Structure formats: C-alpha cells, structure tokens
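User: tokens in, sequence out, please.
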C-alpha cells in the first residue's frame, strides 16, 4: 500500500501536470543575471503577432511585465525580463510558500516579483495595481486567462503565448522578441545546448539504449512522452532513443505532440524502454512502479532502470537545467540487462 506521503505527491504532481505539461537548475540565478549585459533593445515600437493571431503593438521596451500564466513566468525570469508580478500556483511540493515553482522560486524572490493572485482567483484590480506595460497570457491550461483577455487588453499591450506546442527554447525566443531580450534568449539556449552536449559525452550511453518518459499514476491514465515532445528532445540529447507510446491506448480528448495520456491497462505496452524516466517523481514513485504487478515484465523494471526526475513537469530553462544537474551529479548509470 502506498504511503499517505506518496499519495500526496502523486496527486500534487498530477494537478501540476494538468496545469502546465506542454510542449515541465539548482542554482542558475547567477547565470541568468550575467545575461543582462547581453540584452539588446532592438527597434521600438514594434508590432508582433501573438499565438492567438492578435497583432500586439508594443510602444517601447517593456519595463513592468505582469505574467498571468505562472507556467511562463520562469521563461521570462530566465531572460532577465522585468517581471514585476505574476499569478501563482497552488501551494504544493512543486511550489514554495508564495506559489512560485521551486525550480525558479529563489529567482522570483530575489527579484521581488509580486504574487498577484492564485490560479482560479483572477483579480483584475491586482493586475492594474502593478501598473504593467506588458501582460502575458497563455492560450490554454489552468493558468489561462483567455476569458479575461479583453479586460487585460484595456490595461496594457497583452501578448498571448502558447506554451503547449513548443519547447522552452522556442518559447524563450518568442518572449525575447516581445520583451526586447533577444540576445538573452539566444544565450540561454546556446549555454544549455553546450552543457547538454558535454554531459552526453561524459555519460557515454550505449548506442541503441531506449527510454520511456512517464508521469506515473497507479490505476489511472499516465502521460507517456512522445518522440515529438520537449521531454523527449532533452532525454534524447543525452544519448537515449525515445520509445513512442502506442496511439491505441491514448485517452486524450485532443491529440497532443508532447504526451499520450495512456490508459493504465496500456501502460505496460507503451512504456517499454530499456529505462523509464519518471516525471515530477521521487524515490517513492520509483518504488511504486517497481512494485506494480502490471508492470513487472517491463525491461526497465526487471533491470531496475527506473529513474525519478524531480522538477520536470514543465520544462523551462530552470527545470531543464535541474534535469542536467541530475544526470551530471546523481544519475547512477544503467544496470546491465539480466
């Protein structure tokens, strides 16, 4: 029987995955602050077409940004964009006492980002009080304020971003253009790619090693990473070949490019990689997978190649570097096939 603590972590992780799994560093604040010198203002005013098809006219480089989508706030912080306020997530193991996601909470606190309102409690007056000159909204997810878009557009230029159909580097590139931090977007992407390439070389994963990416929910649908998703891109960049989950077990109402929400009955036929990487998981989650009788014949279970990844539900600059930290410092290596 799973412990109450494990149940709490599983439920919290599932809730956050519903919020923001799209396209999910321990101490990277100094890296991003170093990017300030590289920022470039470009030409202003500029008109940008957002992900909702709206033409957004931005008269000058933004100096006071409010993010109504907490899933995108980390990307803005990585660009060293001037975020003054943001919506927050519910308090959970994935967030701090402010509702900031743990992978970038320290950065938000250091930069005095104001918690504007918690998800599900839209507060127009609180947004107005921040005196924003740019507002960021998401197209979908629990942190989307599309229903309130017209009201927000009356306050300041409002950019709608779709974080669900692109990886964090592409999102950063888009936001860099909107905020005038194009050079920062280019730098963080290059720094990350260079670091990943170095870690891949050190890991020296045997050619042909396969992997599945799973958000494990015992007895219920479990999202399994597709080869076209951002999680797959990151893990494959380290030397693994990602196994595509079987479409026939995908229960998603609308097909996604990142994950197949795989039925519990189909999980044993979909997560067949030599290794399984568990999203937003800990050692208790890994133990639960190994103890699940329906998964006993998986190669990863037989060979104890089940690896929990912590801050991985929403891949931004910070959580992606967290994963690189894990592979660089904690990854135990692959067990031989029995």
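Assistant: Sequence out:
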């Amino acid at each position: 029987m799973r412990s109450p603590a494990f149940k709490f972590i599983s439920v919290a992780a599932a809730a956050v995955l519903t919020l923001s799994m799209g396209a999910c560093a321990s101490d990277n604040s100094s890296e991003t602050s170093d990017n300030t010198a590289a920022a470039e203002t470009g030409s202003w005013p500029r008109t940008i077409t957002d992900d909702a098809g709206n033409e957004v006219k931005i008269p000058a480089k933004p100096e006071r940004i409010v993010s109504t989508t907490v899933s995108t706030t980390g990307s803005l912080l990585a660009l060293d964009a001037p975020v003054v306020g943001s919506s927050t997530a519910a308090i959970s193991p994935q967030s701090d006492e402010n509702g900031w996601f743990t992978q970038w909470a320290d950065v938000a606190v250091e930069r005095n980002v104001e918690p504007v309102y918690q998800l599900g409690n839209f507060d127009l007056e609180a947004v107005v009080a921040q005196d924003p000159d740019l507002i960021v909204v998401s197209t979908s997810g629990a942190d989307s304020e599309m229903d309130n878009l017209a009201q927000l557009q009356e306050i300041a230029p409002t950019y709608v971003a779709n974080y669900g159909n692109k990886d964090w580097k592409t999102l950063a590139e888009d936001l860099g253009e909107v905020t005038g931090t194009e050079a920062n977007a280019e730098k963080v992407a290059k720094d990350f790619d260079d670091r990943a390439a170095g870690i891949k070389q050190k890991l020296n994963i045997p050619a042909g090693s396969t992997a599945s990416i799973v958000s494990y929910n015992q007895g219920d649908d479990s999202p399994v990473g597709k080869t076209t998703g951002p999680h797959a891109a990151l893990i494959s960049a380290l030397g693994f070949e990602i196994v595509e989950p079987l479409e026939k077990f995908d229960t998603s109402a609308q097909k996604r490019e990142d994950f197949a929400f795989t039925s519990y009955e189909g999980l044993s036929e979909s997560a067949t990689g030599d290794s399984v990487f568990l999203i937003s998981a800990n050692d208790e989650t890994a133990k639960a997978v190994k103890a699940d009788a329906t998964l006993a014949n998986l190669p990863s279970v037989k060979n104890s190649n089940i690896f929990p990844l912590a801050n991985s539900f929403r891949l931004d600059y910070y959580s992606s570097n967290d994963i690189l930290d894990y592979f660089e410092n904690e990854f135990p290596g692959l067990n031989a096939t029995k």
